[in-house]
Write a structure and sequence with these properties.
The structure holds two protein chains of two kinds. By secondary structure, chain A is α/β, with parallel strands linked by helices. Chain A folds into two domains: about 220 residues, Rossmann fold (3-Layer(aba) Sandwich); about 60 residues. Helix content of chain A is about 35%, strand content about 30%. The relative contact order of chain A is 0.14. Chain B is α/β, with parallel strands linked by helices. Chain B has two domains: about 100 residues, D-Maltodextrin-Binding Protein, domain 2, CATH 3.40.190; about 260 residues, no CATH class. In chain B, α1 packs across α8, α2 crosses α8 and α12 runs parallel beside α14. Classes of the chains: A alpha/beta, B alpha/beta. At the A-B interface, β6 and α2 of A face α1 and α7 of B.
Chain lengths: ~300, ~450
């Protein structure tokens, strides 16, 4: 079953269209990267899923059911612009936020105790948020997002402002949550996050969805069968292969880039090369998500 | 509903648990009397310890006999005005008073020279001094003695009685009603403003701390707004309750300290028993007055007034509170809120000024009627009027309109609020607010 499906979601504001017929399918237990430049419509989509605003048209289903008020407790949301009540103590804050998500007071108490132990921050319980450092406050915020054990967790730029240690901690928690059955949606521009964590990706640009699929599918779609070769002794190649460039690295050592026709396998090229030169390194150039992202966004905006 | 209740609780506890709440709640009922008492004490003290002002006097008429008083010490100048001015200039004294040769029937030409602008009070004292002397001279000239004059002075004091529709007679006292209307009107004005601004502050805090997006992913913006408004209202009511308890306790203990808790009659009897007859007679008149006052007080329907007061406090608070919440949602800081605060506080200010200028003077006039019917002004205006007695139909109409009014403002505010809280960094004007209002959900 899919964690979330959106069909033909449209949201118009007076001056512009924020989402133009966007359809997404987010499989259960995936880590799904929602990518796109600023102002593309990611936040609008997330707000619609969180029922903060309503879509003008389209349908959203959560675990097979039409999105409705009862799903509030199913979703955990960490907005990009985050904050807590500054004057409130950490403990009270966690209890309050969890109760708003529908937990009973006792449940909320038990869960929040469990989490602050997990994060090793028991002494903070009676501290006011304004007395915490930024990183500390973000831990508290993360706990408040996942404390009610949501099946769908939406994280908007979750790592911004985290130091590497905390980022690592949060990453582990996210993977853990996924293992326990949660589905995670990342909204981010951080391509390392996408490379490392996401298995599914969608790119939204200018209110429209441009691509969607598993990371592998997308990379396969956008790779252009180029290979990077380090070799001893220069060569030239012709026929169906195109030698894009050949640069000298040092005495008699070269770095070449070759493009092959779509249907060729790497082995066919390699066989050819072995006859021509001494191959030291041979690697297919697979585009990074970052490259794909930039190409797609730029390509679109050039139109 | 359950979630609104959670928010109400949170907002209530957030405020009540603060030390400042305790301090404000306990100090406010003590602070105002303390300030007023302190000022009065200071003034009396100053008055009693004040050194007399030195006034040079040049009396060309020779009709005045300047004796030093507690306030003034006179130095008599004998020579010309020029010379007197010269003498005065060389001193640090208060003033030089020049009295020309006057005709008693038309006393004119008095002049006072001072170095700085003197207070009205001191000038008045000096003028009275001269006027008294001239009056005495006139009495002499017309052959009237002072006793005759005293017997001419007359004072009339009504006993006020209202005849109700049922023919029942009730004594009344406009003075008490005036005082009651005055105090209650100001209280409503202050509370609506103070708590309204608290709501606005709370909304701005949530918006600037960015918590609001997390909250509205769990509850509807309208629930959040109502939770906050109701939460703060309950803080206000608690504060009232404590104040009433404090005031009752303090005043009853003060009264019992002065032994006034006894029924007035008993007290009077007790006192008169110990007094010689002449004093008794003189005492009876004021006692009668006090008794009348007490009867008047006992006939004021305090229960009804208190109920009306609480109703209008809540109504006015809800009506304005929603608007303050909308303003808070639209801006990013308290400074920015100024431009929107003004139009909200304007009707409140109109009601406040109407209270002094119109309602308390003419509680049953057309203007007073409308001010106490229109929901924006009725909270202040009606509690100002209520003690004077308001026909039931007017009260009911005003209450119904107030309820309608706050439902309307809450609806309008809710529509602005739901959009505003998620918008930060936008330049907001009335056109933008109107657009937000129109956006469909």
């Amino acid at each position: 079953m899919d964690a979330l499906t959106a069909k033909g979601v449209i949201k118009r504001y007076t001056q512009h269209v924020a989402l133009d017929d966007v359809s997404l399918t987010i499989p259960e237990q995936s880590i799904y990267g929602l990518l796109g430049p600023n102002g593309a419509g990611k936040t609008t989509f997330i707000r619609i899923v969180n029922q903060i605003i309503n879509a003008d048209a389209g349908e959203i289903n959560i675990f097979g059911e039409k999105l409705s008020e009862k799903h509030i407790g199913v979703i955990g949301y960490l907005p990009e612009e985050r904050g807590l009540y500054k004057k409130l103590k950490v403990g009270e804050q966690l209890l309050y936020l969890a109760q708003l998500k529908g937990l009973s007071r006792n449940e909320a108490l038990a869960r929040s105790k469990k989490w602050i132990e997990k994060f090793d921050i028991k002494d903070w319980w009676n501290k006011k948020v304004e007395d915490l450092s930024k990183g500390m406050a973000q831990k508290v915020q993360f706990i408040s997002t996942v404390m009610h054990e949501p099946r769908l967790i939406i994280l908007d730029e979750p790592f911004s402002g985290f130091d590497p240690v905390n980022a690592q901690l949060i990453t582990e928690q996210i993977l853990d949550l996924r293992k326990n059955g949660s589905t995670i949606i990342f909204s981010t521009h951080r391509m390392e996050t996408v490379e490392d964590l996401c298995d599914h990706v969608a790119l939204i640009n200018k209110s429209k969805k441009i691509v969607e699929g598993t990371k592998k599918q997308i990379k396969d779609t956008y790779k252009n069968n180029t290979f990077s070769i380090e070799h001893k002794g220069s060569f030239s190649i012709n026929g169906q292969y195109e030698l894009v460039s050949q640069t000298k690295v040092e005495e008699n050592y070269f770095h070449s880039i070759i493009r092959t026709p779509q249907l060729d396998t790497p082995n066919q090229l390699l066989q050819q090369l072995i006859g021509l030169t001494e191959v030291h390194a041979f690697v297919e150039k697979i585009p990074t998500m970052s490259e794909i992202f930039i190409n797609l966004v730029k390509g679109k905006s050039d139109e | 509903m359950n979630k609104i209740w959670l928010i109400v609780q949170r907002e209530f506890l957030n405020r009540v648990q603060k030390k400042s709440f305790l301090i404000a709640t306990i100090l406010v009922p003590l602070i105002f009397p303390a300030i007023m008492g302190g000022m009065v004490w200071y003034m009396i003290n100053q008055y009693e310890n004040a050194k007399p002002e030195i006034v040079h006097v040049l009396d060309e008429s020779g009709k005045f006999d300047f004796k030093n008083t507690k306030k003034f010490e006179f130095i008599i100048e004998k020579e010309s005005l020029e010379k007197a001015k010269e003498n005065y200039k060389n001193t640090k004294d208060f003033a030089l008073l020049y009295v020309p040769n006057i005709d008693i029937a038309k006393p004119e030409g008095f002049t006072i020279f001072t170095k700085e602008n003197p207070s009205i009070e001191k000038i008045g004292d000096l003028e009275r001094l001269l006027a008294d002397r001239i009056q005495d001279l006139k009495l002499e000239a017309y052959n009237i003695d002072k006793e005759t004059l005293a017997s001419l002075k007359t004072k009339v004091d009504f006993k006020q009685v209202n005849i109700t529709e049922t023919g029942e007679e009730k004594s009344s006292n406009s003075g008490i009603y005036y005082g009651l209307g005055f105090v209650l009107g100001i209280l409503i004005y202050m509370f609506v403003l103070i708590y309204g601004i608290q709501i606005m502050q709370g909304v701005i805090d949530e918006k600037t701390s960015k918590i609001v997006e997390v909250i509205v992913s769990s509850v509807k913006p309208f629930q959040l707004m109502m939770g906050k408004i109701i939460g703060i209202a309950s803080v206000g009511l608690l504060q009232f309750l404590i104040w009433i308890l404090i005031i009752t306790f303090v005043s009853s203990s003060v009264l019992s300290y002065f032994g006034l808790q006894m029924p007035q009659k008993q007290l009077t009897e007790q006192i008169t028993k110990q007094m010689p007859d002449e004093v008794k007679e003189a005492q009876e008149v004021p006692n009668k007055k006090v008794n009348e006052l007490l009867v008047n007080l006992s006939e004021i329907p305090f229960g009804k007034i208190a109920a009306v007061f609480v109703f209008y406090f809540l109504g006015g608070y809800l009506l304005y509170g929603a608007l303050f919440a909308a303003v808070g949602s639209a801006v990013d800081s308290i400074q920015e809120s100024q431009q929107f605060q003004f139009p909200i506080t304007l009707p409140l200010l109109v009601a406040y000024m109407g209270l002094f200028l119109v309602i308390l003077r003419d509680p049953h006039g057309t203007m007073s009627f409308w001010l106490s019917i229109i929901p924006l002004t009725s909270p202040v205006a009606m509690v100002g009027r209520i003690a004077f007695g308001v026909p039931t139909w007017e009260l009911v109409l005003s209450m119904v309109l107030l309820v309608g009014g706050f439902i309307f403002t809450t609806w309008v505010a809710g529509r602005i609020y739901r959009v505003g809280i998620l918008m930060s960094g936008t330049k907001v004007n009335y056109k933008v607010l109107a657009k937000w209002f129109m956006i469909k959900n």
